Amino acid sequence: MKMNLQTLTKDLCAYNLWANHELVKQLTEKKEGTAADSIELPHINQKLSRLLAVEEEWMQKIRCKETRSPEERVFEGAIDALLKDLVVQSESFLNYVSELSEETLKEKVAFDISGGGDLKMSRYEMIQHTVGDSTHHRGEIVIS
């Protein structure tokens, strides 16, 4: 099977969805003496909110539909709602990316980063960045 940019990008987003499913599983499994026993810990909610915000922000940039205000959107709510939103958002990301053509993935998109000015990057590079950033934020959620 010939690997192309579409396949690689779709696989990357499928990995992101899988990793978020694994995070949900780890956070919801009941293990005595673990974070799952006190799942409402504020730092976990904060990190999940940040993970959701990062993915949403980059999806808006990739779609050329930045509509958020300069202030970062904060996802609030119970941990189970945050976890559900994370999986739904990752599924939506995968579905969107799966429909992109090779030309669309290579297309350079202009966007603004607060404090960084106007930038231009291909959608593929933006998708790579999004998954890398999501991986970083998942890693910050410590389950002891």
TrEMBL record:
UniProt entry tagged with the keyword Manganese: no
Ranges annotated as spanning the membrane: none
Similarity comment: Belongs to the DinB family.
Protein name: Damage-inducible protein DinB
InterPro entries registered for this protein in UniProt: DinB (IPR007837), DinB/YfiT-like (IPR034660)
Organism: Pedobacter steynii
Binding site for a divalent metal cation: H137
Coiled-coil annotated spans: none
Origin superkingdom: Bacteria
GO MF terms, alphabetically ordered: metal ion binding
Lineage per the UniProt record: Bacteria, Pseudomonadati, Bacteroidota, Sphingobacteriia, Sphingobacteriales
Protein keywords: Metal-binding
